[in-house]
Amino acid sequence: MPYLGTVNGILPWLYPPNTLLLVVPLALLPYKAATVLWLGGAYALFVKVIRIIVPDRHAILPVLFFPGALFVISTGQNGLLTAALAGWGLIWLHSRPVAAGICLGLLCMKPQLVLLFPLALLCSRSWRALAAFALTAAVTLALAVLAFGTDTLTAFLHNTGIATYSIESAHATLARVPTVFALATLIHAPAVLAYAAQGACALFAAAAVCYAWSRECSYALRAATLICASLLVSPYLYDYDLAWFGVLIAWYCRHALVAGWERGEREWLIVLWIAPLGGMLIIACGPFQFMPLISLTTLGMLLRRIALERRAAPVFQRYADE
Description:
Distance between the termini: 44 Å
Largest sheet: none
Number of strands: 0
Shape: globular
Order of helices and strands: HHHHHHHHHHHHHHHH
Structural class: mainly alpha
Number of helices: 16
Strand content: under 5%
Radius of gyration: 19 Å
Number of domains: 1
C-alpha cells in the first residue's frame, strides 16, 4: 500500500518548521534509542493522560491495548504524541492555564488538528491559556526559523501544496484518510462538491465547539466535543490521527460515570475503541470511507448530551470531580 502523501515516489516533509525542534534532538541519538524514546515516550504520555481523565482501575486494560495506540506504534507516527498534548492541555486548562496553553501551542506541529482549540479558548474566555497558546506557537516558530533558516518555512508552504495535490489527484490512499472529503471523492463526487461537503462539515464542527464552550455545561462534555470536532475540520487527516479517539472515549466515560449512561452509549464507545484499526481493515475490503460518519455521529451524541444537561438544570454546576 503506498504511503499517504507520496507523490511520484517522493515523500515530502509536511510539518511546519517548529516540529524540527522536536525531531532534530532525536536524530542525534542512535536509531534504536530514538525509536524507543519516540514511541515509548509518546505511549507512556498517552496512557498517563487517559489514566488521569478516568482513574478507574478497570480502565487500565482498555487503555494499554487501545487499537489506535498500537496502530500508531506499528507505523512509527505521531498520533499518540498529539493526542497526549491535547489531553494534557484540556486536563490543565482550569488548574494550570498557562501550562495548558503551552501544551496546545506545541500541538501546532499538526496545524490541521489545532484549528478549533483557540476558538474554544476564546468562547470560554480562557485568556491566559489563549495567550500562552499564541505565544508558544509564535516563539517555537521563530526559534525554528532562526535555527534552521527561512527556507524551512518556504518548504513547508510548498509541501502543503503537494499534500493538497496528492489528496485531490487520489495519489494518496484515500481509504486511509478519514475525512468527509475522502468519503465524497471515493464515491466519485467532483472536487468542488467534495470540498463543499468538507467545508460544511468544518462549519458544523466549529459551531459545535461554540455551542459547547460558550455556555456552561459539564467540562468533560466540553472536552470530548472539542476532541471530536477537531477530527472533522481538515480534509487532510491520517488514520493514525484517530488515536485521538482514546482521549475522546476517556472524556465521554468521565462524564457518563458521574451523570449516568444513556441507552447505547457504552456500545457506541466500544465501536469507537475498535474503529482506528477495525475501520481500516473494513475499508480495505471496499473503497467506502465511513470513518467521518462515526465521528459525526459521536459529535451529534455529545451535543444531545449537552442539550439534555442544560434543559435538566436551571442553574448549571460542574460535577465535583471535574
